[in-house]
UniProtKB/TrEMBL annotation:
UniProt keyword terms in alphabetical order: Chloroplast, Plastid
Protein name: RNA polymerase alpha subunit
Domain RNA polymerase alpha subunit C-terminal per the UniProt entry, residue ranges: 19-75
Natural source organism: Nicotiana tomentosiformis (Tobacco)
Keyword Transferase in annotation: no
Gene transcribed to yield this protein: rpoA
SUPFAM superfamilies to which the protein is assigned, alphabetical: C-terminal domain of RNA polymerase alpha subunit
MF terms (GO), sorted A to Z: DNA binding; DNA-directed RNA polymerase activity
Length: 77
């Protein structure tokens, strides 16, 4: 039985999403050239990869000890 185009599209979309997730997991925050204070705050909060960082909301980031609103703005660009 051939796959319906809809099913194929879903599988393809899921595969692309997973590939992006893998790519984000492989970019570590030390590669982002962040100021050392921001880098240290993120590390202390167990944020090591870009995926970890993106899984946090702005509110989550503001709860990090010694993290300032300017830091969040700098990360968000």
């Amino acid at each position: 039985f051939p796959l319906s185009p809809f099913t194929f599209h879903d599988k393809l979309a899921k595969l692309i999403k997973n590939k992006k997730k893998i790519a984000l997991k492989s970019i570590f925050i030390d590669q982002l050239e962040l100021p050392s204070r921001i880098y240290n705050c993120l590390k202390m909060s167990n944020i090591y990869t870009l995926l970890d960082l993106l899984n946090n909301s702005q509110e989550d980031l503001m709860k990090i000890e010694h993290f300032r609103s300017e830091d969040v703005k700098q990360i968000l660009g």
